[in-house]
Amino acid sequence: MERIPFETVQAEFRRVLESVGFTVEKADRCACLFAENTLDGVYSHGLNRFPGFVRGVQAGKVTTDVEPECTHSLGVIEQWDGKTGIGLLNAEIAMGRAISIAHEHGMGCVGLRNTNHWMRAGAYGLQAADAGCIGICWTNTTVLMPPWGSDIKKIGNNPLTLCVPYRGKHVLLDMAMSQYSNGKLEVLARRGENLPLPGGYDTDANLTTDPKAILDSKRALPIGYWKGSGLALVLDLIATLVTSGDSTSVIGSRSDETNVSQVFIAIDVGSLAGSQIVEETVDRIVKDFQDVPPLDGVNEIRYPGQGMLAIREDNLMNGIPVDPDLWTEVLNM
Questions:
Q1: In percent, how much of the chain has pLDDT > 70?
Q2: Does residue 120 sit in helix, strand or coil?
Q3: 20 to 30 A Cα–Cα from 170, which one of 137, 150, 238, 275?
């Protein structure tokens, strides 16, 4: 597989976005987020999703000339209207505002409604951690899974991120409420690869590791079975209430996934105990977590986000591996 330098990938993304009407500033920020997602190995929400994102912009599903606006402020919590704008940039602005509130009050929460797909949830957790804050954020989605005990889609996979600052090697938990995100299923289906563990059902209601069969049946498996089903519901409830926005059921009634609701929370934990104590505490807990012998065939016990750091380093050094068809599609845009 061809490997392309990070700077080249980012430059091509920027060129394409400017060509479809983005301002230079918005094209630069959006290209950076797409490129960094790809750099970190989250190809499903980087290069792989980029052509579809551009087509959505061209079809008018994303409004590029608007800015999110604060509509309600109650001290440490605010509501913002995304105005159906660029999901990645709306999310970055919302988390940035939550961080600013946290630096002033210790904690900040922003509910963002009427926004679009933010691509990789973890990007905004990392944004908070880079600012010395714990970052928590999630989004609701269109209907993607049946609730546990049914075969009719009713709940979203509602990605959730929790990120703890850790000396530039942040602990990052970034997960959908399905065993595998739709993006991951699409990546493996494109490669003709199976999942390592069952991730949903085929059209005959059998658990399967075939990503294409799961995409065809539209029956992804919730994490923890009934627990993931319940968590997806509660995340949707909280997002809808905190934002005064649309719920999964309302989003699912539309032909396309637009106007989703998202929550961004930042906690300036350093203001509670001091940054040095925070670093020492996280270091002690992580090292204790890893202080167990791995099973046969397992190289090491990794904390969430550790594998991403290794991928980032490799991709910076050797270039980002790209699907040749997708890369050619971007070059021809």
A1: 100
A2: coil
A3: 238
Q: In 3D, which of 68, 108, 71, 72 has the Cα closest to residue 91?
A: 68
What is the rounded CA–CA span in Å between residue 306 and residue 285?
Answer: 15
For the chain, give every domain's residue range. Answer: 1-60+303-333, 72-178+222-291
In terms of CATH architecture, what is 1-60+303-333?
A: Orthogonal Bundle (1.10)
Of these residues, 45, 72, 105, 170, which one is catalytic?
45
**In the sheet where 107-115 sits, what is the strand order?**
69-73, 77-81, 107-115, 260-267, 134-139, 160-164, 171-175
Distance CA 235, CA 253 (A): 19
Backbone phi, then psi, for 21, in 5-degree steps? Answer: 105, 0
Mean pLDDT, residues 236-245: 99
Residue 140 in 3-state DSSP? coil
Give the distance from CA 322 to its chain's centroid. Answer: 20
CATH class assigned to 72-178+222-291: alpha beta
Mean pLDDT to the nearest integer, 114-133: 98
Give whole-number Cα distances, 58 to 19, 53, 137, in Å.
Answer: 10, 9, 28
Label residue 239 exposed, middle or buried (CB < 10 Å: 0-12, 13-18, 19+). buried
Partners of residue 138 on adjacent β-strands: 160, 263
Query: What pLDDT does 218 receive?
Result: 85
Helices (H), 192-332: 211-217, 226-243, 248-252, 270-273, 275-290, 306-318, 324-331
> Is the pTM of the predicted complex or chain greater than 0.90?
yes
**4, containing H or E segment:** strand 3-4
Ranges of H-type helices in 63-210: 87-105, 122-130, 182-191
- What are residue 299's phi and psi, to 5 degrees? -75, -40
CA dist., res. 162 & res. 124, Å (int): 10
Using CA of residue 317, residue 321, residue 326, residue 327, what is the dihedral sign?
positive
Instruction: Respond yes or no: is residue 45 known to be catalytic.
Output: yes
